Please model this.
Amino acid sequence: MKKYFGYLMVGLFSATFAILGMKYFSPATTADQPIITSTDNHNGAFSFVDYKGNYTANVPDFVAASQKTINAVVSINNFSTRSNNQRYMDPFEFFFGFPNQQRSQPDPDKPTGMGSGVIISPDGYVVTNNHVIKGSDKIEVVLNDQRSYIAELVGTDPNTDIALMKIEEKGLPYIKFVDSDAINVGDWVLAVGNPFGLNSTVTAGIVSAKGRSIDILRRNAANPIESFIQTDAAINPGNSGGALVNPNGDLVGINTAISSPTGTFSGYGFAIPSNLVKKVVEDIKEYGLVQRGYLGVQAMDLNDESTVKEFNRQNNTQLKTQQGILVQSLSENGGALAAGLEKGDIITEIDGQKITSLSKLTFTIANKYPGDKVNVKILRDGKYKNYTVTLRDQSGNTKRRSIADLTVTEKLGAEFEPLTERQKISFGTDYGVMVKNMQPGSKLRGIGIYNGFIILKVNNKEVSSQKEIEKILKSHQGRVSISYVDLDGRIYTRGFTLE
Model:
C-alpha cells in the first residue's frame, strides 16, 4: 500500500510542476483572445486559427424588422373560372400554390391560386408576381388583420414577372424600397410571406448570390429579365410575391422562385431586386405599361465553355471562353444596327459596366428608357471600339408611349392572317383568322390561345382579317370576349380585360 501511495504522490507532484511551468513560461492570453499557430516553412505552408474561449457572433435583432413588415405583406387569392384541365403547364404553378387538381370546372367560390403581395404605399398599391394573378377573373387581397378587398389590376410585366394592383383603402402600413445594388453577398435578409397558406411567416437567411439567371421566365415572356437575388432564407409555395427585406425592414426584393427537386424549400430561393421592381411599378402607374429600351441584338454568352465549344463545332469558328456576349444577329429596326454594331461583335461593356453574361446585359439595359443613349464597348477583330447607341422599344420607337399609343396587335401580343379556302373547309367555317407570331405573356396566351389556333369572333362579331379585329377593338376598353378553335377542333369562349 505504501508503495502505491508513493507512486501517486510522485505523479501528482510531476503534474503540478508541469502546469506551473507552462503557466510561467507561456505568454499571457485573455479568455477570448485567439491563439494563432503558424506552420509556415520554406516548402510552402498553411496556417490556421485556433479559437479558445467564447466566441460571440454579431447577429442582428430581427424582431423589429418582423413587426415592421408582417402587416404590410398580404395574402392574394386568384379566382379563375378557367378549367384546370385546359390550362397549359406553367412551371410556377407547381412551385407556388396553384392546386394540381384535375376537375372539369373550378368552384367559383374557391381560389385557383394563392400567393403573397407587398403593400408599397399607404393608399393601397400592392405589388406581387405576375404568375400569382395570371389568368384571374377576380383578385382578392387579404390583410394581416383579415380585412379583405377585391383588387383592381393596374398592370403587369411578364418580362420581370411583376404585377401591380390597387385596393381602395387609406392609411395602410407599407414597406419602403431600398437600393438593392447596395446589398452584399453575406448580408442578412428576411423572407416574409404566406407559405402553404400560413399567414405572416418570417424566415431568415443571407444573400447567397446576386445577378442569378435560372431561365424560369422564358415561357411567359418574350424578353425575360433575370438578375435574381439568391438567398437561403426559406421560401416555399405561397411565398411568391412576398417581401425580401433587410434587418431594417426595407424592401430588398420580391420573392419569386425556388430551385428544388421537390417543389419545396431546399436552400435556394430567388427574388427580383427592388431597384428593378421600383422601375417597373413606377412605369405601370404612369404609363400603364413598362417603358423599356432595347439594344436590338440577339446574343450568346461566352463565359460558358460547353456553349462556346458547341458554337465552334457548328460554325467552324475558334472562339475562346471569355467575359462578354457575342452578337449573333441584329434587329432591323434596332438601335445597335443603326449605330454600327455588326454580327460577330463581342460586347464587353455598357456605360463602363463590365458585361459578363447575357443576364447582366439585359439587367443593365432594363433600367433604361427608349431614347436613352448608352456607350457600348465591343471587341471586333482583336480591337476594341466604342459606339453610342440610342435605345428603342421593340417597335423601333425612341419615344415613351402609353397603352393608348399601342396598336391593337401590340396590345394583344399576336398577329392574325386570313384562313385559306382549304383551312375553311377543314375547320368547317366561312370566317376566322389564324393566330401567328404569338408573344409570350400576351393577353391571348393568358386565356389559352396559341399559335395555329383559329379566332372566330371578337366581342360576338365574326372576323376574317386582322383589320377587322383592329376595327372592333380600336377604341374598346374593358372586357373582351374571344371565341376560338384549338388544334383539336374544340371551341371555347374566353375573356380578358383590355386596358
User: Anything to note?
Assistant: Residues 24-42, 83-91, 93-104 have pLDDT under 50 and may be disordered.
